[in-house]
Amino acid sequence: MGGPALIDGEYHEETNNFKPCKFEVNGLVYSSPENYFQAIKAANEEDREYVRKEGKTGLNSWSLGGTIKLRSDWEEVKVDEMYNGNRACFEQNPDSIKDLIRTKGPIKFAGSTPFWNFWNGNIMERLRAEFRNEGEDQKIGQTINEFMAKYRLDPKSFKY
């Protein structure tokens, strides 16, 4: 599950993977970052299209994603794909970027599993650093990118 992150003492809806947010990736339109994430994990095109088209809400997409066979490399790429879906959503919805880059403090999630609370926070901190791109931001973005690469190489033994 998702939910907005707590940043600077306030919940920020722009960080919610379930938020309605139309965006396009490779010519296909998605209804939310969660819709992208659940569709892209499908092992075959038929399931991918089913989740993409029928997942009209984030919650519905999440539910449908639990009914399909996962692609064989899913454990290795799932964090990257959550980043990709969120990045596309932000890039195509610039008001969300403005809201995110105004924040300063740590980005904390609490509405999901410990795994996803951790990674969603890191993904949003990386995106904020990349979009803001000033001062320490380049270093922060690169550090989180490297951290994500370590996970990709060996997800089963990764410690976070």
**What is the strand arrangement across the widest sheet?**
1-2
Can you summarize the main beta sheet? 2 strands, antiparallel
Number of strands: 4
What proportion of the residues form beta strands (DSSP E)?
5-15%
Helix content: 55-70%
CATH superfamily: YbiA-like
| Overall pLDDT | 96
> What pattern of helices and strands is seen along the backbone?
EEEEHHHHHHH
Query: What is the global morphology?
Result: globular
CATH class: Mainly Alpha
- N-C termini distance: 19 Å
Number of contiguous helices = 7
Provide the gyration radius in Å.
15 Å
Which class of secondary structure composition applies to the elements? mainly alpha
In the CATH scheme, what's the topology name? Tetracycline Repressor, domain 2
- What is the annotated CATH architecture? Orthogonal Bundle
Which regions contain 5 or more consecutive residues with pLDDT less than 50? Answer: none
- Number of domains in the coordinates? 1
What would you note in describing this structure?
This protein is mainly alpha-helical and 160 residues long. The protein has one domain: Orthogonal Bundle (Tetracycline Repressor, domain 2), CATH 1.10.357.40. Helix content is 55%, strand content 8%. The protein is built from seven helices and four strands, in the order E-E-E-E-H-H-H-H-H-H-H. The strands form two sheets. It has a two-stranded antiparallel sheet with strand order 1-2. Strand 3 (23-25) and strand 4 (28-30) form a beta hairpin. Helix 1 (33-40) runs parallel beside helix 3 (58-65) and helix 1 (33-40) packs antiparallel against helix 4. The chain is globular, with a radius of gyration of 15 Å.
